[in-house]
Amino acid sequence: MSRITSIFFKENRKNSVSKSENPGHIGSLDGIRGVAILMVFAEHYGDIAEHTHSAPLLFIQHLKSTGWLGVDLFFALSGYLITGILWKTRSDKNRARNFYAKRVLRLFPVYYGVWFFLLCYSAITSIDWNPRVFLEYLLYAGNFAAPYHINIGPFQIVHFWSLAVEEQFYLIWPLLLWNMPSKKSAMRLLAALFSASVLIKIAYLLLHVNNHAYHYLPTHMEAIASGSFIALANVERAEVWQRYAKLGLVISLPALMIAFAIFHGLNMTKLPVLIVAFPLVAIAASSLILRSQNPDSFLS
Predict the structure, then answer these.
(1) 3-state DSSP call for residue 10?
(2) Beta strand spans in 119-275 (E)
């Protein structure tokens, strides 16, 4: 019996080691993914204060409405993971073919399967909707349609906007990264994209431009750019970046709380909120990702 038990525990140890050594999976990021999922779920479901004037319930409702920040957490995670892969494979002979082929195989079957179902549903039920919307979503430009076309019959399609933003970024970013003369040049470009996204929103505000900044890549690039930035920065001098990450959390999280109090919540339809919240969330998310890589941190 003791021999069987010994063999059992040895096998378990082997399995746990093999999982931890899997380069395609970073276990410490699973908790961050879980938080992001819960935030987005809370944003979309359960209007607990819809028919009440209770101050505590209204506060909880305001707090729940910040769940959209979970999308930015996903953007930062995506930037971190994908840019890490792109940088490691930059010298591969078939890097472009391999990268885009993997994206196609991972996303296209499910994505276009859903849209095939929606097309059949709309044809059978004779739902009146704009074919242009269907075309935009087919071409991963659904973020342009999302502010105006939320659903097809009982099925919501608005959530596909975030996938469109990511795919638009990854259509261009690998080609830019692979042709950068150095890692520092790529990091400078990402910092410039981060800053440009903020400045464009400020320009919209000053010029009174009615733009759905939340859904468009040029005005919602902070999180994905910051995630990509730390993927490159953390290659070297990891200890230094761990200190920066700790400082980033110390600054960004209280700043987000102050913004929440000043704006009475973080309404994603208000441009001043996005100008303040997007950079702070990007810094917080990237810092959180970096801290999760520290074996001494509780996040790991």
Answers:
(1) helix
(2) 151-152, 155-156
Residue ranges per structural domain of the chain? 27-91+160-292
Q: How many CA atoms lie within 13 A of 161 on its CB side?
A: 22
Count other Cβ atoms within 10 Å, centred on residue 259.
18
Q: Tell me the pLDDT of the chain (300 aa) as tens digits.
A: 434 334 333 334 444 333 334 445 667 788 888 888 888 877 766 666 566 666 676 666 667 778 889 999 999 999 999 999 999 999 999 999 999 999 999 999 999 999 999 889 888 888 877 788 888 899 999 898 887 877 888 888 888 999 999 999 999 999 999 999 999 999 999 999 999 999 999 999 999 887 789 999 999 999 999 999 999 999 888 889 999 999 999 999 999 999 998 998 888 889 999 999 999 999 999 999 999 887 766 555
